[in-house]
Amino acid sequence: MELNQLARTIFDDILAQGGRVYIVGGSVRDVILKNSGEHDVDVEVYHMTYEQLHDLLAKYGVVNTFGKMFAIMQLENLKGYDFALPRQEKKVGEKHQDFEVIINPELPLEKAVKRRDLTMNALMYDYQNEEIIDLCGGLDDIKKHQVRCVDPQSFVEDPLRVLRIAQFIARFEMTVEEKTLDLCYQMVQQGMLKHLSIERIYGEYCKILMSPRPSIGFEFLKRIKALPFYLSDLITTHQRLDYHPEGDVFTHTMLVIDVAALTKHKTDAPLSFMWSCLLHDIGKPLVTTADGHAPQHNEAGVKVFQKVKMIQSKKQRQYISTMIMYHMHLMNMARNHGKDLSYLRLLKKIDGKVSMNDLICISCCDKLGRGKVAQEQYDAFFTFIEDKIARLGMQAPQPLINGYILIQNGFQQNKQLKMILDEAYDLQLQGLSQEKILRSLKKKYE
Length: 446
Ligand SMILES: Nc1ccn([C@@H]2O[C@H](COP(=O)(O)OP(=O)(O)OP(=O)(O)O)[C@@H](O)[C@H]2O)c(=O)n1
Fold this sequence. Notes:
alpha+beta; 51% helix; 5-stranded mixed sheet; binds cytidine-5'-triphosphate; 23 helices; single chain
């Protein structure tokens, strides 16, 4: 394993003092999976007391301790390394922190691994012997590309693990072993996931969305009936087969997010973009008619989005809401040979909230998420957009008239001003000069 030189020096010191060092958790798994990328290194130190380990670490720098009960220690000058003592955990309440923790430096490894969620996450790297210790069959499961829980009894103690499975299988393109899948289903049926905080759920959803194949994670959540209402409602919403040969809205959404996963690096806000793709059609269940039409599903989607509480950042909410609102405008314009004016109006509406680039990306993903898209249709869409961009740009034109100018020209500062400003901008887009806009507005409002 690749380890920092200071970490090696500390580990050697621990061994010299009679301790034993094991690296555990995601960093070991990721080495086996040949998964590159930054990862914190979790170090479990055996045969030393809390005080002994603390004193030893203090020789190398300032020690910070986290989670009084978990006794996790970090060195300020050794970022990304967490030192902990072996422990057993017992759930004592419904909340995430409701655990009784029993630290035991002499805990047998077989017992220590029991608190881990999945076999691939229970692998240990023995620093002294430079070998992987696999007490739960994690290596075999990785070979089979499957996730499997270590111990059903301890697995259920943290319901977040159900969502962790969803993100792991999406990230590593794996399947879920049958008994583990049944266990997850039972946990959902028993309402265990209801106690999870929205922040924790959001974290796992983000990991699913930023994975190479997000659909794998959401298909799993569908199978165990753990989807929130705004996604599960998509399953029973059918669409017109001539527009959507792929079938219901959920199936379409899954195709869209998988294409989006390949496109996200081209966008200005990859995570928010992925969320937008997941949620772009959440309005459809509300407005879809018996023959599969979904008029104004974008506006309905914005309303449903207000109920999606797990996204809390104001900026992200504004981005996603704007994407839901305008996700079909470019496509509709291309279909109806939209006028330059509607394109310019669209630029103004999205201005500062999302970029035209990101709107183009979501339109492409939406189009590609229909299974087989006729090449001519796709080409026509691109020609349309390229033409508009070449002539009219990607940014909304700067307004010639602002509130200050209106007031200087005798308009009152009242509620109507905003409406008049919109009107002024529209006249500008129609090609009127500043002088002519003011003249026209004065005539109308005086
Ligand atoms: N609900 C949880 C969270 C964590 N773990 C254990 O703690 C380790 C470290 O957890 P964490 O850093 O949260 O996740 P990783 O598995 O490292 O995965 P990621 O790549 O998402 O960080 C996991 O490998 C697993 O052994 C667990 O059993 N149950």
